[in-house]
Structure formats: structure tokens, C-alpha cells
Amino acid sequence: MDPEETVFERALRRIRENEARILQQRALIDRLEQLRQEHLLPEARRILTMMESNQRLFSEQLRVFNQDPPGKA
């Protein structure tokens, strides 16, 4: 972690990293479908749903933080 990185920058970086993981999970699901690995799909989709839900939460928290940053009076 860069010591010069602000809390906002770190949060934004984590959101971007999480988005990359979501894209990887979607690609995994596509590949499982191609390989007809139906028994693995429910868990893979459940994980994707949780990742997407977390992403929405992270994005909302970042939006709120950006509107009212700490120390703002």
C-alpha cells in the first residue's frame, strides 16, 4: 500500500479490484456452462451474487463518503 494513498483512493482501488474479480467470476461461470459442469454452477452463481451485492454496497459507501468526507464541518 502506498503511504501517500488517501482513504478515498484506497477505497476506489479496492472497488476497481473487486470489479475485476467479478468479471473473472462471470468468465468462470461461462466456462463452467461450456464444460457442462452444472453441479458447480449454483455455487458459482451464489458467489457472483454476493460479490455484486458487495460491490453495490462499496460503491454506495464511497459515494456517501465522497459527498461528506470525514473532517468536513
What does this structure look like?
By secondary structure, this protein is mostly helical. The two termini are 29 Å apart. The protein has helices at residues 7-34, 41-67. Helices cover 75% and strands 0% of the residues. The radius of gyration is 16 Å and the shape is elongated. The chain contains two helices and no strands. The protein has one domain.
Radius of gyration: 16 Å
- Note the total helix count: 2
User: Gap between N and C termini, in Å?
Assistant: 29 Å
Order of helices and strands: HH
The level of helicity is: over 70%
The tally of structural domains comes to 1
Compose a concise summary of this entry:
This protein is an all-alpha fold. The chain has 2 helices and no strands.
